[in-house]
Every structure is written in C-alpha cells, then in structure tokens.
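Lecture notes, structural biology module. Today: joint structure prediction for complexes of two components.
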Amino acid sequence: MRSREKIRPKRWIGWRTLMGLLPLLLFAPITIAQQPIAQQPGTSGKPLNFVRDIQPILANHCWSCHGPDEKTREADLRLDLQQVAFDTKAIVPNKPAESGLVARIHSTDAEQIMPPPATKKPLNAEQKRLLEQWIQEGATYEGHWAFQAIQRTQRPVQDSLRGKSSIIDAIVREELAKQGMQPAPPADRATLLRRVTLDLTGLPPTKQELEQFLADTAPDAYHRVVQRLLNSKAYAEKMASQWLDLSRYADTNGYNNDEDRTMWPWRDWVIQAFDENMPYDRFVTEQLAGDLLPDPTQDQRIATAFLRNQGHNTEGGIIQEEYRVEYVADRVHTTATVFLGLSMQCARCHDHKYDPISQKEYFRFFALFNNIDERQASYSKFVAAEPFIRVSTKSQQEELSKLDRKITELKTASASAESAYLETLTQWLKTQSAESIEQRFGASILHTFPFDSVQVKTPESNSQSVIGLDIQNPQHPVTVVGNLASSTGQRQESLQFDGATHLSLGNIADFENTTPFAISVWVYLESDGSMALVSKMDEENAFRGLDLLIENGKLVSHFIHRWPQNALKVSTKEVLQKSKWQHVCLTYDGSRKASGLQIYIDGQLATMERLNDSLSDSTKTERPFHVGLRQKSLPFKGKLDDLRIVQGNVQSIQVKELGQAQPLTSFVAWLGMPSDTWTPEQREQAKQITLTRLDPVYISLQQELASKEKERSELMDQFPGVMIMKEMNPRRETFVLNRGQYDQPTERVDPNVPEVLRSFSSLAPSNRLELAKWLVHPGHPLTARVAVNRFWENYFGIGLVKTSEDFGITGEFPSHRELLDFLAMYFIDSGWDVKELQRLIVLSETYQQDSRISGENLAKDPENRWLARGPRYRLAAETIRDNALAIAGILQPRIGGPSVKPYQPAGLWEDVTVERRGKYVPDQGEGLYRRSMYTFWKRTCPPPAMISFDAPNREVCVARRSRTNTPLQSLVLMNDPTYVEAARVLGEIMLASHEKDDARIQEGYLRAISRTPRSDEVFLLLDLLAAARERFQKDQTAAEQLTQVGSRARLPAADVKEIAAWTIVASTILNLDETISKR
Amino acid sequence: MASFAQLAASMLRRDFLKNSMLGSAALTALGQAGSASSLSAAERSPHFVAKAKRVIYLFQSGGPSQLELMDYKPKLKELHGTELPDSIRQGQRLTGMTSGQKSFPCVAPKFKFEQQGSNGAWFSELLPNTGHIADKLCIIRSMHTEAINHDPAITFMQTGSQQPGRPSLGAWLSYGLGSEAEDLPAFVVMISHGSGSDANQGLLDRLWGAGFLPSSHQGVKLRSGADPVLYLNDPAGIDRSLRRQMLDKLSQLNRLQQAQDGDPEIATRIEQYEMAFRMQTSVPSLTDLSDEPESTFEMYGADARKPGSFAANCLMARRLVERGVRFVQLYHRGWDNHGNLPSNIPKQCKDIDQPQSALIRDLEQRGLLDDTLVIWGGEFGRTVYSQGSLQDDYGRDHHGRCFSMWLAGGGIRAGTVIGETDDYGYNIVRDPIHIHDLHATVLNCLGFDHERLTYRFQGRDFRLTDVHGKVVQAMLG
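The predicted structure, tokenised, for the full assembly:
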C-alpha cells in the first residue's frame, strides 16, 4: 500500500486536450462490453443518470482509494462525497476543463494518470467521456436508488378485468415506445397454458387440462387457470424449491466429514408456508426469529432452521471458535443477500469499498446472529449440532405422550411397591422355613485359591501337577502349564502370568446353568488386548461352557450352549484399570437370562450391557476349569490373586466379603432377626432382595417399565433432529474482528443494522426479532424490492435488477425502476400477499406475450430486457426432471417428508467420502419418482444430473443460478436411466393410445409440449420410427435391453420391439429443446 | 451512442466467437457458448504470451510429509526424541488433535536421503525415480499456508480461499482459456486411492467446482470403469447408428423449432448434442489403452494397466493433454499419516514415484513438457514432532508452516530448489512462498496477470488470488 506522504505532493493538474483519444474510441466496443453500464438496456438518448451511469464507474475505478474506506484512502480525497470532491476541485461542476479528475484520467504521465496503472483498472474512452459529460452537466450526486424510499406510482388501472396487472403493461409499453419497439401479440393459448403451469407449479399441464382450457372460451378462463394453479400443492412445492438455493438447504453437513443431517422438517415448513399463503413478512419473521416470538410453536422454532442450514465442520483437528465465527458470518451473508440484496462480506475485513457499510457496522449486524450457543458436534453417521430439537409428526407425538403417561403410571406403581417392601418381605418370611431361605439365598464357598507360597519346582517339562493350592480341597491336583512365578499380591503373594502360562483346575465348578454361583478374583492388569481370566469352555464345540474375559479393558462373560444362537453375553461398560489391583466378581442367579449375570468391580455393580440373551440349553462341558486361558486362546498377562468359587446366590453385600477373605455371612441368620436390628447395609439388601426376587408385582412392573422406556427411546430416535436458533443468556459479547479473523477481537460492539438503512424508521434492532420487524417495516427500501425482483426473475428469466443478489452500488440499475417500485409497493399494500403478487405478474399482458424472437429484437435487445416478447429459456434442473416424470405419468405426488434417493451412477460417494464409508443406495419404488426438490442433497457430492443443469452445491447461499448449455446436459437427457425409463413409459403410452403412428406421435407431443406436431415434425419422427423398428426387428435382444432400463416393469401386453422403437421416438421428444424450455 | 456501442460489442463478440481461433475454441468448449459472463472472450484471453497452454496437477491429498520426502534435515538424527523447543514452535496454533499434547518429541525420518541431479537436490530413498528427474523440476521447500486442517487447507489450495464458495483453479483456467478440445471437456478430474491407508479425509465437490463462475467451468470427473464420463454410454440396446439417426432427427426437429422461435440458444443446443456425440466416440478411444506400446507400461509401471490407479491416471493425463484438455486434476488420496507413517508412506510413494517421473519423461519425449505445466503437492506438510508419544511406527500431525511441492514444464525454471527450512523442518528461513504466490505464478505461466483475471460477482471483481499474491520470479524459466 502506498503511503499518504508519497501521494500528497501530487497536485491536481489542469485540463489537457482530448487529442489523441479519437482512435481509442474505435476500440471502445470490445472493452466496453465488460462494463455493467454497457450491459444495460440502452442508455442512449437520455440525460445522464448519476446512479445508473456514473456511480458504477466511480465505484469500480475510484472509490477503492477515494471512497468510504478510511484505511485505504489516498490524498484525503473522497469521490463518493460531493462536498469533498467539489472542495478539493477534483470536480468543478460544469467545468470539466478545470476539474482535477478530468486532467488526471486523461494524463499520459504514469505518475499522474488515474486510476494508477498498478490498480489494473483503467478507464476506457467511453467511461472517460461519460465522466466529462456528467461534470459538464453539473456533476449532480444522488443517493443510491435502492436505499431511497419506494415510490408509489400514480398510474391508473387500464383494464378492469386484469386490474392492477395492467399497470405493469403500461410501464413496460412506455419504455418500449422509448426504445422504438413494439410489444408482441399474445402467445397462443396452449403455449400460454404450458408456460404458466410450468411457472407456477414446475410441472407441465396434463392433456385434460389443455383440452379444458382450449374449450373454455370465457373471458376469465385464464384467470381461473391461474387460480387453480395457485391453489395446487404443486405451486407450494415449486415456490419452496426455489427457496432451497437461497437458504443453502442440504441433507448433509458439508465439509470434510459431510455426515447426514435431517433438516427436511424445515423444508416441509417452507412448503406449508407457501401452501397456506403465509404473508411474506411473517415468512421472513418466523425464519429469522420464530424462536423469539411469544410462546413459539414447534413450527415457528423449526422455521429458524433457515439460519442453521449452513454447513457444519466436524473435522477432528479444527479450532471450534474459528468455525463458529464462520457460521455466524454465513448467517450474515445469507440474510443480507436473501433479504437485503446486499453483499456484506466485503465489510468483514475492512470498510466496504463501495457500499456505505463500515466494518464496525458489519460486526453490529454480526452481533444479531452471534448469540447462539452453537456446539461443535463430533463425527458420526448423523450429526445435528446443538441447539436442535427433535421434531415429531402428530401421530408420533400422540404415541409419545401415550408412552409418557404409561411410564409415569408404572413409576408410581413401582414406588408404592417399593415403599411397602418390608411388609412384603415379612409376609414372605412367614411362609418360609430356615432351610428354604438358605436354599434360596444361601451361598457357600466351594474353592479358595489364595495363590500364596506356591512352590513350583524348576519345570522339567512344560506341564506339571501341583497340590495344595485349594484351601477347601488341599489334595486336589492342579496342572500348571508354562512358567509359574510368584509376585507380590493384593494379600501376601499372587501368581504372575506371562502370556504363556495357565492353570488347569480340573473338572471343578461343573454347574448346570440353572445353579446360582459366583466367581471372585483379584486382578492386576499389565497390558491391553483380549484375555481370559477364567473359563470352562469347549471352543471346538461351538464354544460350549462359560468364561470371564477382558475385552478392550471391559469385563465380559459368556454362557454358551451354542454360539451365538444359544448363548448369553454380557459386558461391563466400565473398563478395568491397568497397573492396579482390582477385585472382580461374577455372580449368576441360575435364570439362564443375561439379566441374571452381574459383574462387580471393587464391590460396585458395573453397568451391564446385555449383548446376547438367547440361552435355553445346557452349558455343561467336560473341559477343565482354566485360569489364565480360555481353552486354547486368549492367554492372560498380569497377576491374579485370591480366586474363589462360590455356589449359591451371592448378594451384593456379600461381594465385598468375598474380596476380603472373610467367610460369607449367612442371610438366614439376619433375615430371621427383627428388622430394626439390621444394619443400614442389610436393610438395603433386604429391600433389594424383596423387590427384585420376591415381589412378583414389582418385578413385572419393572419389566414393563424397561420395555416402555426402550420403546420411547426407539421412537425418539426416529424423530429427526432439526437445528434451530436459540438465544443465549447472558448475551455473548461481539467484537470487531481485525481483518475478520476469529482470534483478533478489538472493539466491543452492540447489535444493530447499518446506518444507511435506518433513515426510514427509528428502529434500532438489538435482536433477531427486532431485525425481522425492521426488515418488514413498510418503509424499508430493500426487503420488498428484493423479493418482488426475485419473483419477477422467476417468470422472465432475468430480474428487473439483473443482479438479483446485489442491489448495492455496484449492482445493476433496474431496467424498469417504476415497475419495480410498483410491484414492491403493491406487495406491501397487499399485506405481503405472495400468491396475489404471482397473480398480478402472470395476469399481465407483458407475461402473456408471444415469446418468439425476431431478428430485429434479437439485435436490439438480445436478453429481452425491454420485454418486447414473452419469456423463452431453458427450465431449471429440477423442473427438467420433474417435467419428464410428469410427462411419462410416473411422478409420485407425495408432499414433504425425508429426502429420497433416485437413480445415481454407482460409486460416486465412495470416491470422495472419508475412508470411502459413504455409499449411495438408491431407493426402490416411490423414492425414484418424486419431485427433484426431495432428492437427497449431499454437499460434497451433490446429485450429478442436477449439477449438470446448473444447480449449485448448496454450500453457500446462491441467489441466481447460471444457465448454461453443455454437452453433459445432452448426455444426461439421452442416457440417464431417469430419462431412458421415462421415455420408455411415454413410448408405451403413445403406443397404447392410438392405432395410427401419426396419432401416437401427436399424443407424445401433446403430453410433452402441449401442442400438436406440425406435419414436417411428424414426418421426421415417422422416419426415425421406421429406422428404430428396423433395428429392433433385427435384434430383439437390443429391444429387451433398452426396455429393461429402470425399475418399472414393461407394459406386458405389447410387443417389446414396438415398445423399444417407441422409446426411441419418446426419448427424442424428451430431448427436444422445446421440452426442456419454457416458451 | 451507448446503445450503438453495446450493439456493436455484442455483434463483435458474436463474430469474434465465430471467426477467430479462440472463438471457435470457445464455442466448442463445454457450454461457453451462449451464456453471459462478466468478461468478454477477448478480455479473458491471455494477457501476455503464455509459456504453458495446459496444466496437469498431481494433487497428493492428505498432506504428504515433507520430512520423509524432499526436505532433508540431517540434524534430526541428533534431535530425535528431544523436545521441540519453544523457540522453534513459537507458540503457533496446533490442530485439535495435538494441541492437548504435553510433550512434543521430535522424530527423525526413518528413511535415507541422497542427492540427485546436477544441483544436488536431496531426495528420500522412497522417491528414487523422481530423484532421477530432479533436473527437470523446480522444487519448493518453503510453501506455507494458514490452514491447519484438511477441509480449509485443501479448499485454500484449490480455490484460493479457506471457506467454500470460490471457483477452483481449474474452473478459473477453463473460464480464462476456454477449451482446445473439440470433443472433451476443458477441465477433467481423476481420483485414485492410495495404498498407504484409506483416506481419513474426504474430497469435496467444491475442489473442482465453478463457485460463482458459470457452472460449465466445473471439472468433469473421468472415472475408471464402463462409464468414464457420467452418462456417457448409450443405454444397452441403442447402437451408434441408431443414436446417430436419433440425433439427426433431433437436430432437424430443433432446427425447425429455431425457425419458429428464432432463439439462437437452440443452435447452441444442437451443437452441444453434436459434441456429446463426439465425446461418446472420443472418450472410449481415450480410455482404451490398447494403442499404447509395451514400452509405455514399462515406463509408467504395471499399475498403469489397473484402471483408477495413480499410474493409470498419470498415463490418462498425458492422453488427455495430447487431446487438448486444458486442466487435468488428479487427486491421490491417503497421505494423512497421523500414525504408522513409516509403514504407510513407502506404499504411497510406491504408488506415485515411477508413474509421476514417467509422466514427466513421457511429456518431454513427446514435446509436450515445454507447454504443459505439471504441479505436484498436497494441502500442507506434517509436524516434526510425533503425534502422541514417540513410537517406532510414529505419526505426524498437520503442519502449515512449511511444506514441499514441485513444478515442472511450461514456464518453469527446471533444476532449481527454492526456499529453505530450519534444522527442524518446522519454520521457513528463506524465500517463503504462499499459496496465493503459487497461484499468481501458475496463472503467469498460463499468460494471465492474476490481478486481471477477474469475475464480477455481487458487485466485486473476484480473483483467484483475492487481494494477495505475487509472481515468484525465481520459479520462472
């Protein structure tokens, strides 16, 4: 950047001759083509208009250094402010010769010429001439048109039937007359019906609709068609479909991981809003601030998903704050573009170069969207980042509240059973003998292996027999395999296992699985991986037997008859710590249920996961009981101490005793004592025993409760999570960020909107709801203009302001400013009635004109900006596909709901997804044939056929699509199974409809383009039909293959060769330029 | 007057498109005809004489480690296992994956290095063949980026911005240069999966997207398999002659309609169908390698016969540029070595080493290297310190402060090494080159002033280099 000091000495020098400029003018036409001014409809013959003709030149070529941005301002000169420009004599009104600006733009001195060559933005001769002319005429400055109040037209209604639509025509015709052009005659009625049906519904008229309209000669026939279309659901879908680009709607999060999301309930909300003709002011308010309305409904909260539709990055290493700031910036960008038609992005890093928005104002606006506690989500298959709500349908909601009521009931009943436990227990004890209590609750230790002072001689072989290890059975021999070593233990010594050593205790603990028992052991873990603590298992016989293992640190136990069909498997959620003695105890109640298996770590019952629960047969095996190995696998590394095997029901308070080498206290003893003598632990134990073992009422209540809670969570999992807006309290402070960087906060700012847009009211929005109120204030100069311009663009292909995303200073001046203001004012006056505005436009004669292009008009006005004819251009991606499906009669009419997956070439997702995990599985049936607005939208790999026809990838807000014409589009229409199948079905319809071929062709034309074919067209298609017939007569297999494309079955009655031939004809019709165009 | 100027401009442009060389190229480029854009073809044509006419970009996705490949740091042998000093780390931000680490032990690469070529550039033993073409390369050891995670970093490298929304490099060049090919897209994308590991980062449509440029400038994927370009093949049952007959009738019907409606876009559409038909012929002949002599496969390696491999894609890249494609973008995935780097990186290198050196030699033998710019590199480098504790099969985290790339061919000074890093391979000590500088230089090779190749969107003239970038003269031949 150049310093001011360097520039200051330069003076504004006097006027220089224009000599030598003449040759330059000859080259003007080519270079001028890049200037917005030259793309506008002719500016000839009119006096200069500052905003239209001069401001863009100043903004693009001068204001970077002599404009609003203080930091880059040179020589203290501002050319955006009249006062400064005049005071410095850069501009002397009416005196170009004395104006410094004129001298400098004509200078041939590289040091003097403006703009400086280094900026690489030279002025061309026409621009220089315009600047001079403007100064000559007085150098009048005007405020930017789009920031001025909307002007109300005084024009009267011309025609009572069309009402205010006739004002559109009056304005358009006045401009046409100025250009020396004539309006076109009305389009023929069939063409008009197709045009308006495609425009209002995104679908073609049916043959019946065409016949009815052609037969209806009443003067208001067209009016009634428009009304019918506006009332259709398809209208709401069409309007909503256009809203998806603006709101960057997608079904995935975008960015590196690009997981699925479920924002489609918001899409349903949009459809619903258009269907019920929600006024646009409410439409705006609910999407920006539905959550801040008094007592917001679920729908109003869903509406705010508009502000959460941006991407969400879950990449492992990202810095959360960096992305949080990006999301807020995205909201600013989207809101400004969609509602204000302004790009505020530039002002994030520095004061805006053209538009009067400072960096500080940017961050004030930013503050409005910054007060949300948006949490980083971690990578998983489906991600909704906080804050979000689970959204349910009405019937799901009913089901949920039914479940909730039931759960509350069950809990109340359980609580009363709980409080009556002592009574229940006393009643039970009265009916029991001491023996029966002992049998039910008693437990006795069968084996104790303290692993102290184990004498193992230096092994002569790898295996040897040792006695004296079991305290209860000192003579019982134990086989030691490998090198047994002693180590310090939990108590005295322990056994050290090196991964190649185990003990075989023989056929002990040979219980049937109806017998309750427990195994207790102290464990000192020294390594990761899977290892067996103890087992008695026959691995070769479908793993019959039981084990207690460590898997990834968790304790796991199997009881198996035949794995996995007939077995139990449980696991703790907790992991065992390494390098620490911990007591592990497995208890089993003989129930053959996974719920009967409990694992305790250091006396605490672990959280049990039941992974297999299908045991119904014996687990007995003659394999020996192993310590430190399963049968052959999973050797243990680490230390074990004090192994005990207990028969009977070990209760939780006894587990600790087992870990402490105490004999087990007898239940029978204390259960028989008066309850007031029980210790608190015993009291708790008695309660547990009663409730879980003795009280059938409580047990069944608990079972039911568990099943209802499971049902509830399964139901909740089906509800899509929709990310919404939710304010934080207290408010997050917002700072100006130096160069827009998340980690460089400077000055703290309060929320507000840019000053330049605040003159119409005293509103100073400090939250989103106030922002919405400000936006829809009837005096707002932009909201209505931007909206009606976009609607206009929808009908004519180009907005009255061509740059429909940019109403700022460098945006294009409206072709018909009065018309834009009339529409905007009408929209506001109607109470922001969206359907009414559509009606107003399509009832105009301007809209209903013939769209044929004469050579003269093409030369004069190639883009049809002056509207001397009706619109003619290629349809949008979604409409092209929907149209083909509708023509073939296979479009499925279901409205809303989750996205669907129609045909897509295989492997596209795998090519780009993380670890190639993503896989596109096309739907079957209905999902293949629904409107394209429901197609699943993956941001990193969007539907390819949509992209070919200019759909954006939906990563950022897009207000205007490009409209290209490419060979890839031809390939899609010729070969995408969607179109091949549609062609075949249309072919079948044509074939079945009539006996004669020319009538069949006519049928196809009527369905596809709502007109009868001309004779030369029929002739060409008959020719093609003959060639196709010949081909398929020769090759029936080819006919079979062609007609098998797609999942719809072929028409059974017809000859396959005929269907194939008609498929070729139908495909040709679907490929016609006319079919994919509105005309 | 202005109206006359406008009319003249539009007529001139049409004539220009129809008559000039550039025009005929532009007309047949994918979708350039007919659609409006903010610069006329004349403005977009190169600003000065281009050294390169086309680009092959061998993108190594995931962030290849400079320390194991081309940035030889002998002192690391001594520093192995020692803590990265604060004086080197300079408190700069780390990814969320290692920012919580208490210790940052330096890791010396496990691989040997040797000097190659006449200027003695150091190459890892993992890249022997690439070392042999050292004299044809301009090696940069001082690339740097602000991004530290895949998505922003790869988006930065491919679009000049860390955040979504901008056109990709290839789209800019398609917009600037139009197409040379009559029957192939201007911008082709191919993806291969590395043998090292399944990539734990994704690729993104935006990397070859058109951003706010007309969508016809987006990259077209060329895939291995039966349908190399999406929807290329006629459905089973339609043979070439029937397709031809159908297209003849279609074009006659469209022509009749044009006579009715007078819309010149219909003529463009007819032309697009013809180009589609030509693509249906040309793409199969492009992907059919049976016309390649045995020596080709000896040069590129046996993998070149494996469709979808990096080797096959390199060979395909040569075949594409021979046929006039402007920008061939390869992505080779699998360089994200957070762990098990010594086990995985040799496999990745084996994937690329022979084919990429073969590509350079092949282009040279065919006289194409002089006007084809070849770019090699990833989105960032990797840290000198170990991710997690120091292990035998260590890993390295993302590192944007320095990384290595190489370029070769049109406009590039061969046999040079630019830039130097410190003994840790952590900071640049000489001649830093930012991504914007690289982009400015690449555009320069193709004849564009990076400050003048612009597109007007939302009131602003956007450039690939935003408001940054300077041409690196040292890279230019």
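Point to remember: The longest helix of chain A spans residues 394-419.
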